[in-house]
Amino acid sequence: MKRKYYVILYIVFAVVFIQSCSKFEPIAPAEDEILDGPIEGLNFGQSRQFLAGDVAFNDEIFTSQTGLGSVFVATSCGSCHAGDGKGTPFTTLTRFGQIDSTGNQFLHLGGPQLQNRALPGYTPEQIPAGAKFSKFTPPANTGLGFIELVSDGDILAMADPTDANGDGISGVPNYEYLPAFVQPFFNATPRNGKYIHRFGKKASAYNLLHQTVNAYNQDIGITSTFNPKDVFSGNNIDPEVSDLTVHNVVFYLQTLKAPIQRNQNDAEVLQGKKLFSQIKCASCHMPQLTTGISPIAALSNRTFFPYTDLLLHDMGSALDDGYTEGSAKTFEWRTPPLWGLGLSPNSQGGQYFLMHDGRAKSIEEAIQLHGGEALQSKNNFTQLSQADKNALLKFLKSL
């Protein structure tokens, strides 16, 4: 009886101790305050694959013993996308070598990406004389699986290459050839053997497998069966990352949740949303898109709100770096998704680094850099009252 009393007393003490300690634990952030995490509706097997991809993306740090380099930019995927958010000037990539649709003329000199770091005993790459270049700040990763599933038909429906409706906006898709390891979507709409690409600052990557293989190879110097070319020697070598790991990372990127808008019912946010359409920002930053059919049921036939049309637009001379990719012109950039914009400072050291190269230090500064097809929208913003500007900016920060 006495022993039973001590057992009960011990259990009561343990419960009280655990509860008291829990008061000192940090409060978990709300779902709408973070970018990482899986989409809802994954089954057990899919959840396991998501976690495996998460580990490979965020925890695996490459060394010389595991294939890093000999020249490289980063040592892991997650080092450029902290918390699956945007990068900073310290993680910004340099792309070089292509000036028009005829292709990159500097591939034999290290193009299209500058590997600015090297293992001991090796020399980092330098931009070759005469090569045009551009800085690309790493984007946020969330919601990419939704974007991958927007059909060619929907993208083409948003395109207006001749500005037939006379609104001054003439977005076009970036058509490019597929690498051998990429299979086209079943409903793809090719043109002269080229396919609509969706990912990257210039929409130069077709799907998330294409994007992932390129990142392993160009960012970390890691070969795979998909791309066995060593960025240092130019020779084909044995794979340094397994097919399983690549596919796990692709699945992880496909199933990261979409950013959740905050303060959706706030009166000022709602006013800003209305102004966003009124000054024609929504002509390129399309609020709503729909996915097609996916083998991942949780992604099939979903309506989502990325604020992009995935098209290339003339952004004016101020944003013309003289460098391009695919069929894009040097002054054309893919409309970046705006979802997650308000959370960008979380991964950017507490401040904004916006536009393709991070040159804008605030949302308002980014708006003022818009030119070309976006010039009228910029002028419309400039003419707003301060109260309306504040409402629009509050809306954008809620995304």
Element layout with pairings:
Elements lengths: L1 H21 L21 H15 L12 E2 L20 E4 L20 E2 L14 E4 L7 H5 L3 H7 L15 E3 L18 E3 L10 H13 L22 H12 L12 H12 L10 E2 L12 E2 L7 E3 L17 E3 L28 H6 L6 H8 L3 H13 L1
Antiparallel strand pairs: 1-3, 2-4, 5-6, 7-8, 9-10
Helix pairs in contact: 2-6, 5-6, 7-10
Would you write up a description of this structure?
The protein has ten helices and ten strands. The chain has 399 residues and is an alpha+beta fold. The protein has one domain. The chain has a two-stranded antiparallel ribbon. A two-stranded antiparallel ribbon has the order 2-4. Strands 5-6 form a two-stranded antiparallel ribbon. α2 (44-58) crosses α6 (243-254) and α7 packs across α10 (386-398). The radius of gyration is 23 Å and the shape is globular. Residues 14-22 have low confidence and may be disordered.
What is the structure about, briefly put?
This protein has 399 residues and is α+β, with helices and mostly antiparallel strands.
Keywords:
alpha+beta; two-stranded antiparallel sheet; 399 residues; 10 strands
Query: Could you describe the largest sheet, including whether it forms a barrel?
Result: 2 strands, antiparallel
Please provide the ordered H/E string of secondary-structure elements. HHEEEEHHEEHHHEEEEHHH
Q: What distance separates the N and C termini?
A: 62 Å
Shape: globular
Arithmetic mean pLDDT: 93
Structural class: alpha+beta
Helix content: 25-40%
Radius of gyration: 23 Å
Side by side, the strands of the main sheet go 1-3
How many strands? 10
Q: Could you list the spans in which at least 5 consecutive residues all have pLDDT below 50?
A: 14-22
β-strand amount: 5-15%
* Continuous helix count: 10
Query: How many separate domains make up the residues?
Result: 1
